[in-house]
Structure formats: structure tokens, C-alpha cells
Amino acid sequence: MAIIYPRAMPAGHWFQSAEFKLADLSVANTLQSGAVQTMDLGDPLWSATFRTHVVEAEDRQMWQAWALSLRRGRKFLAFDPEKEFPAAYGSAVLNLTRAIGGAFDGSATLGAVTATTVQLLGLPALYQAKAGDMLSFPWNGVRALHQVVEDAAANSSGIATIAMEPPVRLNPAPAASATVDLVKPACVMLLKPGTFSAPASYDPQPVSFEAVQAIV
Predict the structure, then answer these.
(1) For the whole prediction, is pTM greater than 0.85?
(2) Which of 22, 47, 87, 107 could lock 130 by a disulfide, CB 3.0 to 4.6 Å apart?
């Protein structure tokens, strides 16, 4: 069967640790008056470092094949395993019901958008978004990944306005009524060359690698 790109990471609870960081490309300039000016030099992109639990040779072999399939700039979908589910609910979020009726599958619909906020529609009534939660939605052929920076709650109709970082890219603007993932929110990433490690050993060993977000 043909591999579909961007490729998913192998299914399962593999990771001992993972760290997502948002690159800070801003610079500051202090004027003679004491005022400080800041400017962004480029789009802030996510980078990530992954390390699995120690795994047996068969699983290392599977990871090696996965990494080989990503050569020549092929892309994959990455998510932060610590933030797979919203913090207020964990996996029980999938037991909730939408305010408008029907089972909640961990997704919402994108409403109004500004540079720093998104409106989410179709949530459970009084849904709780916690600072640190993540969400993602389609953008320009890839996926935008954002982190909630302030607690927020939906109203009784399942509508919430979420403040988040990095800023929403508005050129082009996200598609109206796009699906927003609140469970396993992912972005499109590339493996950083030379970072993948799955050493051969008679003993169980971890697999590790680094990646950076791709927005084109």
C-alpha cells in the first residue's frame, strides 16, 4: 500500500519524553529614551525533540524504516504526546456531548479569527480550555499548530474565543469553517538531518530524533 504524506508517526504510546518549542525570532532595540522596540524577523516555527522508551530490536527496526521513508524532505505529522488531550478532561473528553447535540469527537469548527484569537464553534456546553492546551487546523496546504495562553470557557451554546500563540497567519487566512483538532493536534514537520538515532544492540535501546515545522 502506498505511503501517504505527510506520514503519521507510528501508532502507540512510545515516548518517554518529547519537547515542543516555539522559535523566538524577535529582536529588541533600546532607544536613547529608554523605550524598547521589538520586531519579529520571521515566522515562529515549532521544533521538537522526541525520545522513546527503551524498545526491542523489532520496534527499533520499525522506527528505522519509518525514518528512511522520510528521506529527501518528505514530511510527517507530529503532535506533543503530553498534550494529546485537553488538560481539563484527558481522554474522557471523547465522552462529552456537543452543545448542539451529538457526540463530541475532539474537534470544533473554526469561526471568527484574529491575529491572536480564534473562535471555536460546536464545543460541548461550558467546555474548559486550559492554558497550555494545543489546537491545530488546516492552513495553506499544511497545518497550523497553536497553544492556548489563557484559560477560556465555552458558553452554553458551545462557543468559545481562545487566545493563543503563535499569531495566526492571516495571509492567506485559514479557510472558513475549517475543522479544528483539540485531540492529538498536529503540525507538519521534517526530520532534522543527522538527528535520528536507533542504535543496534542486544539490549533494549531508545529511539530519538529532532524535527522542525514545515509551513510550505
Answers:
(1) yes
(2) 87
CA atoms within 13 A on the CB side of 14: 22
Ordered DSSP codes for the chain: -PPPSSEEPPSS--EEEEEEEE---EEEEE-TTS-EEEEE-S---EEEEEEEPPB-HHHHHHHHHHHHTTTTT--EEEE-GGGSS-TTTGGGGGG-B-TTSSB--SEEEEEEE-SSEEEEESPPTT-EE-TT-EEEEEETTEEEEEEE-S-EE--TTS-EEEEEESPPP-SSPPPTT-EEE-SS-EEEEEEPTT--B----SS-B--EEEEEE---
Short-list 19, 10, 82, CA closest to 50: 19
pLDDT in tens, 133-180: 999 999 999 999 999 999 999 999 999 999 999 999 999 999 999 999
Q: CA 94 to CA 181: how far, in whole Å? A: 12
End-to-end CA distance of the chain: 26
Length of the chain: 216
* Cα separation, 72 vs 194, whole angstroms: 13
Q: pLDDT per residue over 85-119, tens digit each?
A: 999 999 999 999 999 999 999 999 999 999 999 99
